[in-house]
Amino acid sequence: MAQIFHPSTNTLSRVTIFGALFLIIGLLWLLAQINRSPYVTDVNVVRAQPVPFSHQHHVSGIGIDCRYCHKSVENSSFAGIPSTSTCMNCHAHIWTNSEMLEPVRESFRTGRPLRWTRVHDLPDFVYFNHSIHVQKGVGCVTCHGRVDLMPLMRQAESLQMEWCLACHRAPARFVRPREHVFQMDWVPSIDQQDLGEELVRKYNIRVEQLTDCSICHR
Ligand code: HEC
Ligand code: HEC
Ligand code: HEC
Ligand code: HEC
Ligand code: HEC
After folding, report:
1. Ligand positioned closest to the Cα atom of 211
2. Of 114, 99, 119, 95, nearest to 38 (Cα)?
3. What is the Cα–Cα distance from 85 to 105, expressed in whole angstroms?
4. Ligand 3 pocket list (CB less than 6 A)
5. CA-to-CA distance for 138 and 174, rounded, in angstroms?
6. 44-91 pLDDT, tens digit each
7. Is the dihedral of CA 79, 81, 82, 83 positive or negative?
8. Which of these, 90, 89, 66, lies nearest to 153 by C-alpha position?
9. How many CB atoms lie within 10 A of CB 153?
């Protein structure tokens, strides 16, 4: 009897099956890349603000401490955004003719707060707390990048679960002495692992519990 299928179709079907497999793997890889891309995570995206406030000017230029404006970062879950009167402590006296500062003066005259657009914004089902991170020696720069070099605020890290967990699994790689939390240019030295492990003990960091779902989803 004559063959219906030529023997070469065996090879052909194998190639097609493998081809489909590779195509699916390729698509999954692409999806993973998109999920990590700035398009999804908003990393480095600058937002329109009522006033183009520069951390670079105010932090490295003038040397103002983070806590002057983000007053509650050490003792509350929320870091706090400065009120207009905080800006006016200085801008009632200096740069009083600046066009750029008109929205600040208007807000002060009318009592209507400036409406800053949020740059970092976790979904509502995630619990986050600044004060505990500050208490346990996690530096602002570890999560927010070199804020002191940013002319305009942008998000430095993805803030995805994977990113939080990378530290919660091994905090010794990241923690620093508490007194350096606000220091932007502090860099870990080569003995970070030893120092980190010492601090994990000293600050009583409960490493075993830090990856429990209920820590962040409560
Ligand atoms: C003179 C006041 C001032 C000082 C000092 C200051 N900030 Fe800010 N910060 C602001 C204002 C105003 C905003 C909101 C506008 C914006 O996002 O640019 C802000 C926004 C931020 C945001 C983003 C908030 C969001 O919407 O997600 C972070 C993170 C931040 N500051 C970190 C820091 C750190 C770290 C320091 C110290 C190194 C610091 N800031 C010092 C005034 C200040
Ligand atoms: C401790 C004093 C101080 C505080 C508080 C302060 N600023 Fe300033 N700001 C300055 C100084 C000084 C300059 C000029 C810096 C420079 O050009 O080197 C300046 C410059 C600026 C400029 C640029 C103005 C221009 O025309 O170039 C803007 C915008 C600004 N500040 C916004 C703000 C806002 C918004 C706040 C409140 C969140 C604030 N500042 C709080 C001292 C301050
Ligand atoms: C462990 C990582 C981490 C550290 C350390 C950290 N932040 Fe944040 N910060 C975040 C996250 C995440 C958000 C967004 C919170 C949200 O959406 O609820 C945020 C938001 C902010 C905001 C916006 C207001 C708010 O509270 O939501 C400011 C301002 C801020 N951080 C300043 C600081 C300063 C100043 C420090 C250093 C003392 C600091 N952060 C340390 C992760 C961190
Ligand atoms: C660079 C390290 C680091 C990163 C990044 C980090 N954390 Fe943490 N986190 C810690 C440390 C250290 C503690 C303190 C643990 C302890 O005291 O046992 C902590 C504690 C917490 C707690 C416990 C608070 C409490 O009241 O018990 C929550 C919630 C939390 N982190 C949420 C987050 C979330 C959400 C993210 C990501 C957006 C994040 N963390 C990113 C280091 C980090
Ligand atoms: C250290 C904090 C932290 C811990 C611990 C944690 N998560 Fe999350 N989780 C997050 C953050 C932050 C997001 C938001 C991610 C985003 O916005 O992309 C998230 C998002 C999620 C989502 C939504 C889908 C997604 O991936 O965005 C699910 C489901 C989830 N977490 C389940 C869990 C489970 C199950 C556990 C325990 C095994 C857990 N999480 C532990 C921080 C945490």
Report:
1. 5
2. 119
3. 10
4. 66, 70, 73, 78-79, 81, 120-122, 128, 130, 133-134, 138, 140, 142-144, 159, 181-182
5. 7
6. 889 999 999 999 999 999 999 999 999 999 999 999 999 999 999 999
7. negative
8. 66
9. 19
Question: With a 6 A CB cut-off, is 101 part of the ligand 2 pocket?
Answer: yes
How many Å apart are CA 147 and CA 105, to the nearest integer? 25
Query: Of the residues 43, 70, 130, which should be mutated to test ligand 3's pocket, given the most ligand atoms within 8 Å of the CB?
Result: 130
Residue among 49, 54, 56, 58 whose CB has most ligand 2 atoms within 8 A, to mutate: 58
Residue position matching structure tokens 């740069």: 95
Query: Ligand 2 centre from 213 Cα, in Å?
Result: 42
- Asked if residue 17 has pLDDT above 80, the reply is no
- How big is the chain, counted in residues? 218
Tell me how far the alpha carbon of residue 91 lies from the centroid of ligand 2, in angstroms: 7
Instruction: Average the pLDDT over each of 21-25, 112-116, 179-183 and give the range with the smallest value.
Output: 21-25
Residue 74 alpha carbon to ligand 4 centre in Å = 14
Query: For residue 171, which amino acid is it?
Result: P
- The residue behind tokens 């409960």 is 206
For 169-217, how does the pLDDT look when each residue is reduced to its tens digit (9 = 90+)? 999 999 999 999 999 999 999 999 999 999 999 999 999 999 999 999 9
Nearest to 113 by CA among 158, 81, 139, 147: 81
Please tell me the distance from the alpha carbon of residue 49 to that of residue 159, in angstroms, as a whole number.
Answer: 21
